[in-house]
Amino acid sequence: MTGSNDYHKALPYECDSGWVAIQNEALTLYTLHPKFNGNVFMVYAYLLKNFNHREGRSYPSYMNMSMSLGIRENTIRKCVEVLSNLDMIEVHRLGGKKRYSYYYTFKPLINDEDTFFDRFPEAHIQLEKYGRKPQQEGDMLQTEVTELLEWI
After folding, report:
1. In the structure, what pLDDT confidence band is assigned to residue 127 with cuts at 50, 70 and 90?
2. Would the pTM count as exceeding 0.70?
3. Which strands make up the sheet holding 100-106, listed edge to edge?
C-alpha cells in the first residue's frame, strides 16, 4: 500500500490540497485552434476540477463557474460551446423548458497532430500564422543530435 502523499507525486512540489491533471494535448494541440483561448482552457480545467468520478460527470452551473473563474456567464456559455465543438466534452441537459441544468462528460483528446489538423484544418492555418511548423518525432531527434554534435 502506498502512502497518501504518493498520489501527489504528479506535481514537482509537495501539495496537500487538490490539483487537476490535464492531458498535454490540451496545451499543445488544442491551443492552436483559433477559438481555443485562455478562457476556454480555464473552463475546461474547471470542469475537470469538478469531475465526479462516482457519477462520471462534471456539473457546475454557469453561475458557479462565472463566480469562481471571474468570467461572465455568457462567456462561459461560449467556452462550453467551443469545448463541445472541439469534441473535448459532451454537454447534457437535464430538466424542462424553463428550469434546467447541464452536466458534462469528457471525451478522449486527439493526441496526433495529423489527425487533429485533418479534423480541424483551421488550426493548421493558425499554426502557419504563428510560424510554428509541425515536427515529427524523428525530426526533433535529428535536430537534437545535430545540436549536440555542434556543441561537441
Report:
1. confident
2. yes
3. 51-52, 57-58, 100-106, 89-95
How is residue 29 written as a grid cell?
A: 494541440
In one-letter notation, the amino acid at residue 41 is: F
What number is the average pLDDT over the span 6-27? Answer: 80
What are the boundaries of each domain within the chain? 4-151
CA distance 75 to 137: 37
Cβ count within 10 A of residue 40 = 23
Q: CA–CA separation, 91 vs 83, rounded Å?
A: 9
DSSP summary character for residue 88 = S
In whole angstroms, how far apart are CA 81 and each of 35, 40, 104, 114, 141? 10, 9, 12, 24, 38
For residue 150, the SS3 value is helix
Please determine, for residue 1, whether its predicted confidence score (pLDDT) is greater than 90: no
Q: What is the mean pLDDT of residues 70-76?
A: 97
Architecture in CATH for domain 4-151 = Orthogonal Bundle (1.10)
pLDDT at residue 134, rounded to an integer: 55
